[in-house]
Automatic annotation (TrEMBL):
InterPro entries: Alkaline_phosphatase_core_sf, GPI_EtnP_transferase_1, GPI_EtnP_transferase_1_C, Phosphodiest/P_Trfase, PIGN_N. Belongs to the PIGG/PIGN/PIGO family. PIGN subfamily. Gene3D superfamilies: Alkaline Phosphatase, subunit A. This is GPI ethanolamine phosphate transferase 1. Its EC number is 2.-.-.-. Ethanolamine phosphate transferase involved in glycosylphosphatidylinositol-anchor biosynthesis. Transfers ethanolamine phosphate to the first alpha-1,4-linked mannose of the glycosylphosphatidylinositol precursor of GPI-anchor. It is a multi-pass membrane protein. Its main location: endoplasmic reticulum. The chain crosses the membrane at residues 431-451, 477-497, 503-525, 537-558, 587-607, 614-631, 651-669, 681-700, 720-744, 787-805, 825-846, 858-877, 897-924. One of its GO terms (cellular component) is endoplasmic reticulum membrane. It is found in: Endoplasmic reticulum membrane.
């Protein structure tokens, strides 16, 4: 069953890549060689990483570029698209298209599909900057015309005393040396005299300074001032090298902006609005007797022209008169160029031919395999209309009707973009329908498995009745026959259209799912009959509706966190509706815990604001709670029981380590604020603590309460070392309510005089067998409730304080206690462990509940799987392939969570089993005794 579920959910998981994450890059498009005269022989591109428009406009720390923009150059806002990250930003600038959704398969680190760029089309290009950016464009340079000098990425650091200008100084020094060395290589010198060449300078200092010191800090302003001064110097060096021949164009822009709190990736205006300044050869000169300045920015309004970021690609291509990269969707902002009308019309014509060629190739790829009677073409640009349009454009060009040609080309480019989108999503709707049907069939199949389990464990069913579990009878044969015949049709359609192999699985799977779900028909008929006889059909439907709505609410809470408070408040009423009563204090604690936990759903996502005081408060609350428990529960029996003495000592050790951790958190944060070097000694100490955390709980006895105390203390300690705000209080509240849940569940079962203090984590323990009567039982309504609570706590553990694994909410101070170096693997691992920490608390508590309720673990997992698949249908239609990496990544993570939740539960349950069932103290003691024996 586990293997079947794994296969089914792998299919569901990979289906979203065929539905949403196909690459929009059209392969094998032929570039069009432009016929207009080149306004410039060479172009110098400065990309100031992380420079937002506000920082350029509102401050006077870039006086040279502002002066150029107001006099002999042009400037404006370059509107980027989300995700506002370095790789897609540079791709948009140099290749003319926005994020490739299929890059998710590469972890957003690189484009998995090869694409064309301005660097490819240039005769020669020289690039300086960080290796991860330069590698995007130079890794497949087979002709050897792209030359790069790459910076060591480990020069990046988040230490507050780090001078971020050194990152840009590295680039400027090497460019300076390249042009100023006394004896240039003769071959290189000859190449430098060629036309159609490009110089690309990637300047990372502003991005690092913004992350570390924030964009309004003095350090950031100093960094961009340094950039401004050196851009002026580099311009002078290049002009001098080329004897000021007036054939060099210069462009300064940025790949993305940045928020006030030093992050980027989403659609905030500060992130999507970047500046550009264009000057030099081929640039329109504004002739005005008096400069009209913007009152807000003191920038010339006459010189301002706002554009889209992808438009920079055809702009640079036109300046050098090289082919527009074939994958570009940018449109030439011709008003920026000082060109004659014929040359301007020819340049726009080149841009249009490049775009319509891209559309035409995409259209023919679909048409070549589509079945004629099923094919629906994009009517505005059918094959006949494309031929007609090309003929008309050629005629207008030949007749020198340039204004008409420009107008027609602009209209055709818009149609081409719409057509590209149409054919890119051509098979999306059929795939969504068939995967949705598979989801529903899988849910019905799981319900059938639960019905079979209940029949097999109930004594009142006779052996004859159990025979209905096997498919038989004419109805079942008819259903199977019809299903087989229905499966032939999608096989033919997929084969005829030459679609990918996985499409066979997608379109056949719903037929197979529903066939096995509805057979044997007798099982469903007997079940419905038994429900009708017991007059519980109305109650059953009410429960089905409640659980379905609850699952949908959990799914909706993935995007609207406040919705999590609704099931939490509903859960607070649960003990009052139960048949057995608990103590008043237990009720008050449960209700208070549910209300407090629901409050966190309304608080801001962790990451944007830092409040270390809340982290310290969470640690102090836990220290007080554990100290109170030790003093009142363990210390009275300290001298009477060796096991209690051991647990008291271990608890005191963990409290001491937690107190030291709080001191480290405070001191490291203070050093960061005061811009002092972060203590390496404290970081080493934190790494040592992290090694100890998983080991310390294993020295406790296997008594549930005490072992959970040790586990939760270790988890919380590690969690706090990676916290920056109220998430520490969330973790304390979550642990509190989990313990309340365990106590209430224990009191609701018939345990006689047994106390929860005596319960251990050994499922086969003889004491447990005496205290809790064990009967092999089937699934019941209470198990559905427990599984629902467990699922809700898992969702809460991940989204209670926001998706802490998201890029935009990342705060460098999360990992301050462990590292200040830019080491993506280490940082990602630490954040992942922080994300998993609450899950382990939930899993360990649920394991205790499983033990004393004797709930069938396999069936509980199936129920959780049903809830997750209801959410899965909802999430399938909410996956996004546009927007920020935060939005795309969050939608993917939501779908992945609901698809892998059962597998994840099995894995986390095994980890919880190790944490709750391993006795490291006893193992070490046995080893010592054995050693003494043989000694």
């Amino acid at each position: 069953m586990f293997l079947l579920g794994l296969i089914v959910h792998i299919v569901f998981l990979f289906s979203i890549f065929d539905i949403y994450f196909k690459s929009p890059i059209v392969s094998h498009v032929k570039p069009y060689q432009p016929i207009h005269e080149a306004p410039a022989d060479r172009l110098v591109l400065f990309v100031v990483d992380g420079l937002r428009a506000e920082s350029f406009l509102n401050y006077t720390t870039m006086p040279y570029l502002r002066s150029v923009a107001n006099t002999n150059g042009l400037w404006g806002i370059s509107r980027t698209r989300v995700p506002t990250e370095s790789r897609p930003g540079h791709v948009a600038i140099l290749a003319g298209f926005y994020e490739d959704p299929s890059a998710v398969a590469k972890g957003w680190k690189q484009n998995p599909v090869d694409f064309d760029s301005v660097l490819n089309q240039s005769v020669y290009s020289w690039c300086w900057g960080t290796y991860d950016i330069l590698e995007i464009f130079a890794k497949d340079d087979l002709s050897g015309h792209i030359y790069t000098e790459k910076m060591d990425p480990y020069d990046e650091t988040y230490s507050p005393n780090r001078n971020t200008t050194t990152l840009d100084k590295w680039v400027f020094d090497r460019v300076n040396y390249f042009f100023n060395r006394q004896e240039l290589d003769s071959e290189i010198y000859k190449k430098l005299q060629h036309d159609k060449i490009l110089f690309f300078l990637h300047l990372l200092g502003t991005d690092s300074s913004g992350h570390m010191h924030k964009p309004k800090s003095q350090n950031f302003l100093t960094t961009i001032k340094f950039v401004d001064e050196n851009i002026q110097e580099i311009e002078q060096i290049i002009r001098k090298f080329y004897k000021d021949d007036g054939r060099t164009a210069f462009l300064m822009t940025s790949d993305h902006g940045m928020t006030d709190w030093g992050s980027h990736g989403t659609g905030d205006d500060h992130e999507t609005e970047t500046p550009y300044v264009l000057w030099g050869a081929g640039v329109t000169q504004i002739e005005s007797e008096s400069i009209q300045l913007d009152n807000n920015y003191e920038m010339s309004l006459d010189n301002r022209h706002d554009i889209n970021q992808a438009d920079l690609t055809p702009l640079m291509s036109t300046l050098l008169s090289i082919p527009v990269p074939v994958n570009s969707i940018g449109q030439l902002p011709s008003e920026l160029l000082n060109m004659t009308l014929p040359n301007k019309a020819k340049a726009i014509y080149s841009n249009c031919i490049q775009m319509i060629s891209q559309y035409n190739k995409k259209r023919m790829d679909i048409e070549s395999s589509a079945i004629s009677f099923l094919y629906h073409p994009y009517e505005p640009l059918s094959s006949e209309k494309v031929e007609e349009i090309l003929h008309v454009m050629e005629m207008l060009l030949a007749e020198e009707k340039y204004n008409s040609l420009i107008s027609l080309c602009e209209d055709i480019m818009h149609l081409s973009l719409n057509g590209l989108s149409y054919y890119h999503n051509y098979y999306q709707k059929p795939l969504l329908i068939t995967i949705s049907l598979s989801f529903m069939g899988w849910i019905m199949f799981l319900l059938k498995v639960l019905l079979k389990q209940r029949i097999n464990t109930q004594a009142e069913y006779s052996i004859a009745s159990k025979g209905l579990l096997r498919p038989n009878g004419g109805v079942d044969i008819v259903i199977r026959t019809i299903s087989i015949l229905m499966a032939i049709l999608p096989f033919y359609l997929i084969y005829a259209q030459n679609l990918p192999m996985q499409y066979y699985i997608y379109f056949v799977m719903p037929i197979v799912m529903w066939m096995y779900a509805v057979t044997p028909v007798k099982l469903w008929m007997v079940t419905l009959k038994s429900i009708r006889n017991k007059k519980t059909l109305l109650i059953l439907w009410f429960e089905i509706v409640c659980y379905t709505l609850g699952s949908l609410a959990m799914g909706f809470a993935f995007s609207q966190r406040w919705v999590l408070s609704i099931p939490l408040l509903g859960m607070s009423l649960w003990p009052f509706l139960s048949s057995k009563q608990n103590s008043r204090s237990t009720y008050i604690a449960w209700v208070a815990g549910c209300i407090m936990l629901s409050v966190f759903s309304f608080l801001p996502v962790v990451g944007k604001d830092v409040c270390i005081e809340l982290v310290i408060l969470a640690g102090l609350i836990w220290i007080i709670a554990v100290s109170f428990y030790v003093w009142n529960t363990l210390m009275p029996y300290y001298d009477k029981n060796n096991e209690i003495k051991r647990e008291a000592i271990m608890s005191i050790i963990q409290i001491t380590i937690l107190a030291i951790s709080l001191v480290i958190i405070f001191l490291q944060s203070k050093r960061f604020i005061d811009e002092m070097p972060i203590s390496r000694v404290f970081q080493i100490l934190c790494w040592n603590f992290s090694v100890m955390f998983p080991l310390l709980p294993l020295f406790y006895t296997k008594k549930c309460i005490n072992r959970l105390l040790g586990i939760n203390t270790s988890i919380l300690n590690f969690y706090l070392l990676l916290s920056v705000s109220h998430e520490g209080l969330f973790m304390v509240t979550l642990i509190f309510i989990l313990n309340c849940w365990m106590i209430i569940e224990y009191k609701l079962i018939d345990v006689g005089k047994a106390k929860i203090d005596d319960l251990t984590f050994e499922s086969d323990d003889t004491d447990n067998e005496r205290n809790i009567s064990y009967i092999e039982r089937g699934i019941n309504k209470q198990d559905f409730r427990r599984a629902f609570f467990f699922t809700l706590f898992i969702i809460l553990a991940y989204f209670g304080t926001g998706n802490i694994a998201s890029l935009n909410s990342f705060e460098v101070r999360w990992v301050l206690c462990f590292t200040t170096s830019f080491q993506p693997f280490v940082i990602t691992t630490l954040i992942l462990l922080k994300t998993l920490a609450p899950f382990l608390s939930v899993a360990c508590t649920f394991r205790a509940i499983q033990i004393f309720t004797k709930a069938p673990v396999g069936c509980l997992n199936i129920i959780v799987l049903i809830f997750s698949n209801i959410m899965g249908i909802q999430m399938l239609f909410q996956v996004r392939n546009t927007g920020s990496w935060l939005e795309i990544g969050t939608s993917i993570s939501q779908f992945v969570i609901v698809q892998t939740i059962t597998l994840f539960i099995v894995l986390i349950s095994q980890i919880a089993k190790i944490f709750t069932g391993t006795d490291l103290y006893g193992t070490l003691l046995k080893l010592l005794m054995t050693k003494k024996k043989y000694a």
